[in-house]
Amino acid sequence: MKKIAKILLSAAVMSSMALGMTGCNSEKKDETTKAAGGETTTTEASKSEEADKTEGDTEASSEEGAKTNDGELIKVGIINNDPNESGYRTANDKDMRETFTKENGYDASFAYSLKNDEQIAAAQQFIQDGVDYLLISAAGTAGWDTVLQDAQDAGIKVILFDRTIDADESLYEASIVSDMAKEGETAVDWLSSQNLSEYKIIHIQGVMGSSAQIGRSGALDSKVAAEANWTIVSQQTAEWNAETAQQIVQAVIDSGEKFNVIYAENDDMAKGAVQALDKANISHGVGKDVIVIGFDCNKWALEELLKGNWNYDGQCNPFQASYIDDIIKNGAKQKVVIMEEKGFDAATITQDDVDKYGIGN
């Protein structure tokens, strides 16, 4: 393996990265890691000192996986969204941090942002730092071709996790992601099965341009375009934020516009929407005035389904780290791994479902 230089992220990148910030839960492949709160540093480089290496270091054979000839740590740069964005992202970040440790053979550095340009800048810095692997959960799907080509030219392998990007598959080693379009289709199919005489929908979107937003919005947009009795009353982004979602719904309530569906692209935004409904004494949930749909399957959200306060929650699996670890150490067995996910209906959810699939405490 090539010589590894120990360089911290530049101050410019650190200042531009957002402090620790879509939208997905099934059982983790490795049951030892549970969903809980994660750290929220903007960037962090490993502080262990490296012994001097000879210039003759070479990559290990495929049979040896990602281990180096002299046993040095595998250097990874991990680019993610803000861990404070949602319960899903907190669980995802915690999963990555608990997997990519010195004890497990890694020297990991982390960078966070919800902005594509800042993530790309961090990726370029990691390339300059001489990482062995670049792990990316992209804020947006576009604009990654150049940095992925730079990584490939430098002999750095790229693994995508959580979210897809618009780039040629030859530019990355593997992709371990959720099928966001299917998540949206499953939710919209469930909503259609409720057989309402008319659908008047407040659509609260996630960060625009993210694969989670594109997939979950696309399914609803297609259905509304195809059905005469489906109408979007309001469609705005709350960027995964509960308070902004509450403001969006409150504005619709204040306008006097009638609605009977909240379609929020993550649980936090659904929670914010419900707060506005409660403030206006508008009933919601099973058999009530407004249907509430969320995504991610936070445990507290599934408990709202169990109580009948919400109607549907779409699952998104945050536990990709064990798959990535296996790929790094044993090689990619397939180019794309789609996480197993499903949706939950308040009419059929059980306490066992809440305990088994709920993210967080």
Question: Quick gist of this model?
Answer:
With 361 residues, the chain is α/β, with parallel strands linked by helices.
Order of helices and strands: HEEHEHEHEEHEHEHEHEHEHEEH
Under CATH, the homologous superfamily of the largest domain reads Response regulator
Structural class: alpha/beta
Rg over alpha carbons: 21 Å
Q: Mind describing the biggest β-sheet? A: 7 strands, mixed
Task: Please tell me about this protein's structure.
By secondary structure, this protein is α/β, with parallel strands linked by helices. It has 2 domains: 178 residues, Rossmann fold, CATH 3.40.50; 150 residues, Response regulator (Rossmann fold). It has 11 helices and 13 strands. α6 links the parallel β7 and β8. The longest helix is centred in the middle third of the chain and has 16 residues. The protein is elongated, with a radius of gyration of 21 Å.
